[in-house]
Amino acid sequence: MASHIVGYPRMGPKRELKFALESFWDGKSTAEDLQKVSADLRSAIWKQMSEAGTKYIPSNTFAHYDQVLDTTAMLGAVPPRYGYTGGEIGLDVYFSMARGNASVPAMEMTKWFDTNYHYIVPELGPEVNFSYASHKAVNEYKEAKALGVETVPVLVGPVSYLLLSKAAKGVEKSFDLLSLLPKVLAVYKEVITELKAAGATWIQLDEPVLVMDLEGHKLEAFTGAYAELESTLSGLNVLVETYFADIPAEAYKTLTSLKGVTAFGFDLVRGTKTLDLVKASFPAGKYLFAGVVDGRNIWANDFAASLTTLQELEGVVGKDKLVVSTSCSLLHTAVDLVNETKLDDEIKSWLAFAAQKVVEVNALAKALAGQKDEALFSANAAALASRRSSPRVTNEGVQKAAAALKGSDHRRATNVSARLDAQQKKLNLPILPTTTIGSFPQTVELRRVRREYKAKKVSEEDYVKAMKEEIKKVVDLQEELDIDVLVHGEPERNDMVEYFGEQLSGFAFTANGWVQSYGSRCVKPPVIYGDVSRPKAMTVFWSAMAQSMTSRPMKGMLTGPVTILNWSFVRNDQPRHETCYQIALAIKDEVEDLEKGGIGVIQIDGAALREGLPLRKSEHAFYLDWAVHSFRITNCGVQDTTQIHTHMCYSHFNDIIHSIIDMDADVITIENSRSDEKLLSVFREGVKYGAGIGPGVYDIHSPRIPSTEEIAERVNKMLAVLEQNILWVNPDCGLKTRKYTEVKPALKNMVDAAKLIRSQLASAK
Predict the structure, then answer these.
(1) 42 labelled as ligand-binding?
(2) Are strands 151-156 and 643-648 parallel, antiparallel or unpaired?
(3) Checking DSSP bridges between strand 555-559 and strand 521-523, what pairing results, if any?
(4) 652: annotated binding-site residue?
(5) 733 is in an annotated binding site
(6) Three state DSSP letters for 516-559
(7) Alpha-carbon gap, residue 762 to 121, rounded angstroms
(8) Is the pLDDT of residue 673 over 80?
């Protein structure tokens, strides 16, 4: 019985790639140094999978930024502003597309389906000259082969690539991205031909958009594309992989009828209904890659349940045509449980990171072939039983409080217009008030102090002193820049979710459970294993300290319940919405304590609201109902004069704008600049928004510093569709990942732009 891994984490067990990338970007190392680190990591990954007995090992899943950008490079689809003139695309052009450079902005970045991973959105139009411009897929296949490892080269499928793209600026709205399919397929044919010549016998084409609600013409594009590729694919075994959700019946029918395709991969963890489709009808003689090991979460597989499922499928597709697989790429999990020193043995026994999931896949494949590891299966059963019966998982008081939420929609008593009037009387803010989103740059020294405090090498007194000095520096800088509503800069926080999780019950924390979010940015998601509550105040001390340093309003900074949920590894033994309500009650306690502590502006981030939206439209309403309700629970008890902000970043919001309005926040700051101000089109189309709103005026994920004139131009575009009395001026997101040499001039230009527009508005009266 064969085994397969869809994809694998690329950062390395100790984030080796992250540090190599940042060293290269900072000019401290060469391209050769970066490529050496990358090659060593790839070699270790392939060796690990090979030694575990994996038959179908992926290659070309190792990206320096993301796999969609790799595909853009492969196709030579570089927007003209980056000055690409042909030939093999180098790292300078590649990273300019991802991060921008001194003269041009980066391409748009958005979430990869409903994950916290991001990709760079291709910008396409009728004038794009596609060419085979990156030979990475072939080079990595050859690299593995030279090491004695036969791999399955992985490509983003051609139709998914186009459907995940956007029309470039200036391209007619009516332009159909799928009209580019013939040009794109011409390059795919070159790549596939070269892979065949190099000796590849299998190829994996990822077509995850098949799990979405697709119109008929989009499904027809799959049929046409694979018919066009059929002769080129001849002689290869071709796996088309889907993941993240159930595949709709019509899409399943289209997929399993594709010409030239040998095998089909399905997510059978999140796509439980797909199992029924497979059992009812699966094409004879084709391979089924059954994704029974969860690639999105870190809980140990239920071997007994998975084996039962696999045995049922064996009866449908035949013993020699069933392959045990992960549900999706393991990119979305932490790397290796072996590196964990912070987790206790009980919780550790409940978990499986990427390295352990490779073992799980192979253990299931062997068991299915009659070579069951009885000791491993017994240990698995014991761990599952321990988790079910552990008293640390259940808190009766929390469950009762969450159950009591039913029957109320938890809205504030006064409407937003009246609240804004009351808040303005108290805050006395100018037109177009300026603020930032929360975090300020985290220096090497700041990280050192925090790290040493956690290691008990620095006393609490010295730690508080260091944090106080950093907060004072941030407050003084904001006053110097003349920002209207200040933040304390979050020096005490390494990560916005980890910080809160460490202070809430029901959470566990890893030492090295890093997961890539985008580029070199890694997060360490907490593990929610039990019922959630707040034993004591979490942020009041720091926020009150910061407020005492200034007469200007100081925002209290909290992460909202849906964001904590979606950016954690969530328990899978109860519905997600029940866990979210528990978190909401904990944040509600904190909001009310901040208000009592004299904080009059409180930001409750809803950054991950859109990210958690189910991929199928039929499931949207239920999710949005409990997600928005959870936000309202957090602040339903505050006074009218307390201003509640929320923040959302890097996603497509237009289709959920009414749910965003229903959150009933007083002010929302929202990503806008990197997506070509797509958000503003909602308001151009007539959506009325009465609360405060701050569409981001510059992209913080790029080192580029926008000019005052550029920011002023953005603000004027906003004023064309939004009332001046509700518009705020702010960056797209927090500033933690930037340097002060970038932040100071960018914020100065932002404030100067706001003042310029204010004076223009005043003189126009």
Answers:
(1) no
(2) unpaired
(3) unpaired
(4) no
(5) yes
(6) EEECCEEECCCEEEEEEECCCCCCHHHHHHHHCCCCCCEEEEEE
(7) 39
(8) no
CA atoms 658, 648, 96, 707: torsion sign:
positive
- Which structure tokens are listed for 532? 């959630």
Give the domains, in start order, of the chain with CATH numbers: 2-389 (3.20.20.210), 412-503+538-764 (3.20.20.210)
Within 10 Å of residue 579's Cβ, how many Cβ atoms?
Answer: 24
In sequence order, what are the residues at sequence separation of 6 or more whose Cβ sits closer than 8 angstroms to the Cβ of residue 472? 549
How many angstroms separate the most distant Cα atoms in the chain? Answer: 83
Is 64 among the annotated ligand-binding positions? no
Percent share of the chain, pLDDT over 70:
99
Residue 116, judged by CB atoms within 10 A of its CB (0-12, 13-18, 19+), counts as: buried
Mean pLDDT computed over 253-258: 98
4 has binding-site annotation:
no
Query: What tokens were used for 516?
Result: 């890539």
| Confidence class for position 652, pLDDT limits 50, 70, 90 | low
DSSP 415-454: -HHHHHHHHHHHH-PPSS-BB--SB----HHHHHHHHHHH
pLDDT of 764 above 90: no
Instruction: Consult the annotation and say whether 18 binds a ligand.
Output: yes
Question: Quick check: 524 and 510 in contact, CB under 8 A?
Answer: yes
The alpha-carbon radius of gyration of the chain (Å, integer) is: 26
Conformation bin of residue 665: beta by default, left when phi > 0, alpha when psi is -120 to 50: beta
**What is the token pair recorded at 575?**
């519905």
Is 649 marked as binding a ligand? yes
Task: Write the pLDDT tens digit of every residue in 184-194.
Answer: 999 999 999 99
Select which of 118, 577, 629, 701 is catalytic. Answer: 701
Q: Reply yes or no on whether 701 is catalytic.
A: yes
8 Å CB contact between 239 and 263: yes
State how far the Cα of 680 lies from the Cα of 684, in Å rounded to an integer: 6
CB 13 within 8 A of CB 339: yes
Is 521 annotated as contributing to ligand binding?
A: yes
CB-neighbour burial class of residue 308 (10 A; exposed 0-12, middle 13-18, buried 19+): exposed
Provide the pLDDT for residue 688.
Answer: 81
